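User: Hey, quick favor. My workstation is busy. Could you predict this chain's structure for me?
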Amino acid sequence: MIAIVVAAGYLLGSLPVGIWVARRHGVDLLRTGDGNPGAWNALQQLGRRRALPVFVGDAAKGFAAGLLGLVVAGWWGAWAAVAAAMVGHALPVFARFRGGKSVMTFVGGVFVLAPLAAAICAVACLAVTAVWKFTWGARIGVFGVPVVQLLVDGWERAVTTLWLMAIIGVLFGVAWLRDRTADPATHVEDEAPRD
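Assistant: No problem, here it is.
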């Protein structure tokens, strides 16, 4: 059962929502901004209104994978399915293995794995965004999950969340190394329309 939900989670994660949404607006996320087909580059290239379906779609992949895993194989099945969806988002079979950093897929999955902690962090994200700005609200919302989870779910569940966050950390590290070693002549142009 775990193998089934891992395969399903990977395939769900592989759905290139950002590429599909951006294409409807005449934008190729792989060739604009930082070349990342995830929600953050979509926000920068498309603007808030047009990028909203990318945020929702990427989160829905993690949520659907987690829910499927929970129903089929229990909590550990949900965790494995969310991890697989994050890998699928980063290395999507449907987009020649060029994916994003899996942050929103993680967010969607956390609402299955740790719903109370996720809800508290979502409120914190909205509060910080309202008084400051979205970038800091998003960071506090995401990085706060294991801290809040430690208080409401215990250290065992918080540690499993840290393992999922390690996937994101590796993806950011790989992107940073790629950017440091990239030829400036191959830098993608920021020519996309905005709201």
